[in-house]
Design a protein that fits this description.
- With about 200 residues, the chain is mainly α.
- It has one domain.
- Helix content is about 70%, strand content about 0%.
- The chain has twelve helices and no strands.
- Helix 2 crosses helix 7 and helix 5 runs antiparallel to helix 10.
- The longest helix has 22 residues.
- It is globular and about 45 Å long.
- The relative contact order is 0.18.
Length: about 200
């Protein structure tokens, strides 16, 4: 799952928001030094990733990618899942997606002092200023986000234009995601990793 989905599966607190985003920036971080609620959010992020990576529906989606892009299918799906979640927000989460995004941005802004490392703070600032989550509604923004990731890969690859694989199996991925996401939400709720942090 990508940033937006991780924050959707966080608790509606500043500490949880920071912790659930931190999973993508935790390399080199002294986890033991984090505030307990932030650490619980990080644990939640990792539980989301473990469940997602092991799920048969997600594995099947990855197999549908062309051979030249299959190695990076998980990255493309993570970003595309944000696109699907924002476009099916009322069905999957209820309420107004714009209000949910605004609340996430407010918590990210307030939580910047809790973020370990300048890189995480810089990315969080860009998320807000450029409305990354709102932009995920559009196909072109998703394609650009995937290609930005491809541009950071430091060896030769054929990951660019992965949106083509996603669009070729658009209906199957959408239907799979709409089945998978409620299972993920139930799993995280039952784990309750953030209910009694440390």
């Amino acid at each position: 799952m990508n940033h937006f989905a991780h924050l959707a599966l966080a608790q509606p607190t500043v500490e949880s928001t920071v912790g659930n985003l931190l999973g993508d920036f935790a390399r080199g971080v002294d986890v033991a030094a984090l505030p307990p609620a932030v650490r619980a959010g990080l644990d939640n992020h990792r539980a989301v990733d473990r469940f997602t990576d092991a799920h048969p529906l997600v594995k099947e989606m990855k197999r549908r990618f062309s051979r030249r892009r299959r190695r990076f299918a998980g990255i493309a799906l993570d970003i595309y899942f944000d696109h699907l979640l924002i476009n099916h927000w009322r069905q999957l989460e209820g309420g107004d997606s714009d209000a949910a995004i605004a609340a996430m941005y407010a918590r990210l802004h307030e939580g910047r002092p809790l973020m370990p490392g300048e890189r995480m703070r810089r990315v969080a600032r860009r998320m807000i200023e450029h409305d990354w989550f709102g932009s995920y509604r559009e196909r072109d923004a998703v394609a650009e986000a995937i290609d930005r990731v491809a541009g950071r890969i430091r060896f030769r690859h054929r990951f660019y234009d992965a949106i083509e694989d996603l669009e070729r199996q658009q209906r199957e991925i959408r239907d799979g995601f709409l089945e998978f996401y409620p299972e993920l939400r139930r799993h995280i709720k039952n784990l309750a990793l953030e209910q009694d942090p440390y």
